[in-house]
Amino acid sequence: MLQNDDIQPVYGRGGTVEAWIDDEVVFDMCGRWVAFLDDQAVYNFKGKLLGFYEGGWFRDQKGDAVSFTTDADENGPVKPVCDSPPLPPALDCPPAPATPHQLPVSPMPGLDWSIQSWGEFLMASGTMSLY
Q1: Model pTM?
Q2: Beta carbons within 8 Å of 39's beta carbon, 6+ residues apart
């Protein structure tokens, strides 16, 4: 298990913490790895494109915001009032990521919230079935 002071909360549209990000890895609330970042793209560990991470915003493949980090810029929808984050969990050591299946082209960032929840964002490509 890893414990790092650089872990950041990932907030959903309701202002609650839905995940954690540390270095280039996204973890669920229990500290299990669920996705990784490669440049601006977000992939599951099988190499399938989930969406994008730009300017502190996680975006679906259409460019709409799914969630955000505390350093999210103003190129997105109105951010909710955020809850105080809980203590971060101990993080599992992630495996080596697979080679991405496709080289993505990031869409124009939208100013709308996605119709996808955080869980749907991850499950759309089968990430949640990893454990």
Answers
A1: 0.79
A2: none
